[in-house]
Amino acid sequence: MDRENDRLQSTAALEEQITSLIHDVERYIKAGSEEAARADALEEEIKRLREALRPFAEEADQVDSCEAHPNGCPAHYSAGWCADLTIGDFRRARTALEGRGS
Question: What's the pLDDT at 31?
């Protein structure tokens, strides 16, 4: 009888350990999914910010290709002077920097 009781206690202890391990694995899977979702969100944010900044980088390339301007030189734009850079580009950059999405 003692042997049977020991076996039952041993089996119950093993079942408890297995259940605990299953719960641990479920927590790790959930944590991994949350981390993956955060990484995906950050990748999207980086993509959005790069897209919002692209017109400004292209304008810098254009300015650098034709004249030497020091960094402190003000940029003066007037309607029709720079067809590649639009008011929408400025608005997208502002929105991106505010973190509101596109």
Answer: 92
